[in-house]
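To assess whether ligand presence alters the predicted conformation, the chain was also submitted together with flavin-adenine dinucleotide. Input:
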Amino acid sequence: MVLTHLTRDLSLLERFAKVCDPSHAETGAEPDADAIRDLLAEVLTSGRPVDTTPLTDALFQRLASAYVHEPVDEEFIPLLLDQCGFAKLAPEPSHPPKALSRQRDFHVAVIGAGLSGICAGVKLGEAGYSYRIYDRNEDVGGTWLTNVYPGVGVDTPSHFYSYSFEVNPDWPEFYSKGEYVLDYLRRCADGYGVRDHVEFQTEVLSCAYDDASKRWAVTVRDRRGQERVDWADAVITAIGVFQGAVRPDIPGLDEFAGIAVHTAEWDPDLDLTGRRVAMIGTGASSMQVGPAIVDDVAQLTVFQRSPSWIMPRRKDDLTVSEGANWAMRHVPFYGEWFRFFTYWFASDGNFVRVVIDPEWHMPEVSVSKPSEDLRQWLLAYAREELADRPDLLERVIPDYPPFGKRILRDSNWYRMLRQDHVELVTDAIERATTGGLVTADGREVPADVLILATGYQVLPMLGQIDITGRNGTALTDVWGHDEPRAHLGTTVPGFPNLFVLAGPNSAPNHGAGVNILAESQIHYIVGCLDLLHERGARVLEPRQDVHDAYNERVDEALEGRVWSHPSVRSYYQNSSGRVIVSCPWRLVDYWSMLRVPDEDEYILS
Ligand SMILES: Cc1cc2nc3c(=O)[nH]c(=O)nc-3n(C[C@H](O)[C@H](O)[C@H](O)COP(=O)(O)OP(=O)(O)OC[C@H]3O[C@@H](n4cnc5c(N)ncnc54)[C@H](O)[C@@H]3O)c2cc1C
């Protein structure tokens, strides 16, 4: 792709078609690969000028389709150019600063300095807005600062899970560990000057809209424990979806005499060597911790309530080779093209697997033919990995369709379960004792350490922050305990200039990562702020009828998605079972909705 991109010689696509054809993956298109390398080296070192002007949409589409060996439809092109890093190479920034001096007087409060809050800072700064970010932690990074359990890392491929405006050439693994994500976020916060805008160890307690001044009073408690009120013209909440550890409700847990640690509160000094460890939970964190500690511990007993679907490992070694890293750093567009490839196979291609086919003949286990094909593929992998352990196999197969809950990436989970000193227990835990756990059938499992891999609090979506809008209406009165609703997942009627990142029904649970969500929503928010300035207004809020109609569409679409399947209970749902986290549309649809705010949908004043 790079060679064709730089030379614009389309005959190369025909000549080297084999390298992109998956049917040649095994037999190898190595001779072609060598020839391409030689040609590219020639092009890059000959001293002749190469063509680095932006590709036309048509040319990009042609190259992209050749690369992934399937048609890339026209509707995806703007998203791909934006999200795969090509947009930053365009001469015009996406939001060129306009009327800078007026925007500087307009101050935005951002709550949270994780992946989303840093992105908000970068984009607000670029657009010329004044902003301050508050974070109760002592550093940037959010999730990736606080989660330090063994094996912590991404499930979304690293070469996509990053900002499109800062494509990272240095990922050590295709699914990198948390510390590298944190390093990357720190570098971005420093490189884009965001850190200077962050007030650390400062918790936002409340945000109250003042009708008279059309501003927000943001009450914070700073690092010295002092409360004060800061004023802002707009508030962006970037507090993430996960709001802290959920501890299991096990009678007697407090009496356990050993160490009980939640994965979200891990002590890096905890030494598990030779210990008997009981781990509760088999979700995303457990699946990372277990294989990371299994070789150190004397005994590992895993308590499972419900199993997860597991995506096969593509290969044992997922380290990025030195050569590939060199190419990412030095070869123009290599990183961008690789990001495109990574995104393509981890995003909307999955959507067909979450859509319920009402005619499907085996709705208890899958939701459509593509869903069943996926289920069979995942089953085949489990059978292969556990061929000699039918006892385990029958207990690790979920009874809900794939994608009902997050599909987890295999970091050697099945291989871990097969080990002699590992036991999978599916009986319910009845209570804890000073020395371990007792199951419902009265069996006592002794343990020195309990690992609580029991997940995170997702609700209420705006955490503990007390938010009041126009006329003193509390957000909790509108949303109740767990009924969050927003227009396009970000704006709420009655709460002018309040923007919720990762808000209701906006998570892309069929693919890609939170990074695309954050970037898309922030792009939209900056568009809203620009609209205010263009119209000489101070605040905007969505029309109630527009908000309601949007939410009706959300509900209608969700009825046809796997997350609403009767067999699924997940953190995507609220206490009444309504899906409140997942976005019911393809990424390309949601991304497109967020490109330009529609003035008719808002009340400006
Ligand atoms: C172990 C783990 C693995 C994950 N892997 C993936 C993955 O592979 N792909 C993916 O897409 N997502 C993944 N996620 C989800 C992940 O949380 C998001 O991708 C992303 O990091 C969220 O960033 P954020 O900035 O929105 O929220 P967070 O990272 O949660 O940051 C929120 C910040 O807000 C601050 N804050 C909250 N309330 C207040 C307050 N009242 N006052 C001041 N500060 C406040 C917090 O201190 C925190 O720093 C994973 C999550 C976990 C826990």
